Amino acid sequence: MKARTGVVLLQVGERFLDHELAVHKVLGEKIAGMLGCAFLGRFDPARHEAEHCYFLPDETLIGNANGLGIRGPEDFFGGLVPQPFMATKAITHPLFKRPSRVPPGWSERFAEQAGKAVLHGYTVFDLGDAQRAGEALLQRGPARLKPVRGKAGRGQLVIWNLRELADALAQQDAEEIGTWGLVLEEDLEQPDTYSVGQVQVAGITASYYGTQCLTRDNNGSPVYGGSDLVLVCGDYDALMRLDMPRPVRLAVEQAQLYEQAAFAAYPGFFASRRNYDVARGLDAQGRQRSGVLEQSWRIGGASAAEVFALEAFAADPALQRIRASTCEIYGDAPAPAHSTRLYRGDEPELGLLSKYVKVEPYDSA
Fold this sequence. Notes:
The chain is of the alpha+beta class.
């Protein structure tokens, strides 16, 4: 393993929000402890020698990161992809027939291999294609329009008819869609959302399944509220040996199929943090459906649970299973019992927000 002088935060996005920066600092300190080096704060090329740093980027890396010394998953927490659309949920669905625009690097092979693991939907890179794809989906039932760079479910719309489709597309940025894409997907009723993933740090691999919950933000809108995970020390085979409900087992199988398709279809992709949201609910005909909604190859909402669990595995080589959870609370509400606070503050765009993490024995439930 490469010797590290320190762990650094790498700002890729437009800016760090206070709550993200606070959590990333805590996780950077934890990872530094596992690597046996110092946490150095934000990356500064004038002070830090990139070749000897371990990076925590705030977004999926795009293109070539050799200049930072990132050549494999052991060099950073997150993922690297060759093209922008690969960093988002845009890769999940096939293009609509006879597309007006196909981005560089697009792979039809991925859609073919991952088809059984996803819901019915399309990705488009042109507003005209979005109109045609939306019309086709509406023949089956309501459609969900998903800006591909949205986080925590923000910006998504459920569309019921052609007028709503036209109104929604009129609000989209054609240049944004041309670069990053736009997803239109069948909408599910009464969905449950599972989290499946794998993380690797300091030679330790943890794989997990769990559930997500929604909460209300300070404007009353439903947003991501946290994740409750069961983690094993090991790969997906170790995870599949656990006793789990059939819908959860299907979600883990679908996440693996999706991930295998991504590695096969997109050479140059690698990641030390891989997370998949899998939804299970009823379609417009009342049939039970399950499929991967999107991937996250970057530090995310569940990463505090992931890293705290990795730290526990590193501290006790005999430990094989553990539970860990995150919780996000808007407004003034009490903390979850026996949890560690990661952040509490008043964000200009979000209002009062608190974030917590909790680690428990596997048999605590």
